[in-house]
Description:
Layout: H1 36-41, H2 47-55, H3 69-87, H4 89-96, H5 106-120, H6 122-125, H7 130-143, H8 150-162, H9 164-167, H10 171-182, H11 195-200, H12 202-223
Helix pairs in contact: 2-3, 3-12, 4-5, 4-12, 5-12
Amino acid sequence: MFECWSVGASSVELRHPVTPSPHHPITPSLHLTLNYLAHLLLSEPDPLARIGNLAGDFLKGANVRSLHPSIQQGIALHRQIDAYTDQHPIVRRSKARVEPPYCRWAGVLVDVFYDHFLAVHWETYSVGSLEVFVQEVYADLQQHQALLPPSLQRALPFMLAGDWLTSYRQVSGMAAILERMSRRSRRSSLLASSICVLQTHYDALEHDFHQYFPALANHVQQVSSFRVQPQEVLPSNS
């Protein structure tokens, strides 16, 4: 495995803005598509708290204190999840699997790849189907659109039109996500071809995910005042 400096998911910046269009449905937010599914699944089931856990990736230019208290609660959990993830040894092991020239983006790629494995194995970690869950999330976002941070409000039509959350399940969907992300700046252009990292290390990254995610779910249970869904999480094998 390789050791190289990487950009964490929380530090991806928009250097050269691209105007969204029907042909290039990217979001004008700080992030394009990272580990949205994990944040949503591990959130409190309250719709606004769940929106807040997603909104943690869409806060550029937002006054967090002006948001609904339940959304702020979700944002706080989002940050807890990110902090735990950034220091976890299994996540670091996954990042070390990312070879040059992609290792600069190892943190971003591992976030996205882990959401792919969560989508693939959704019924292992959640009660019900991915499709039903995603439709519930989309409905909540539309119902409470006026309460969303501005960046998430602008991203929502593209998220719905492209069905971003369900697209995680297919490798082709992952490739499209990474290609969209690559248009964020000249520095991120390499992401367009980074799907090869997932293809090359698929089994190893999948194994890492199955060790990491139950540990994350257990951590969320410990730091939160609610019981994480699903009610049963697999024991950590880390």
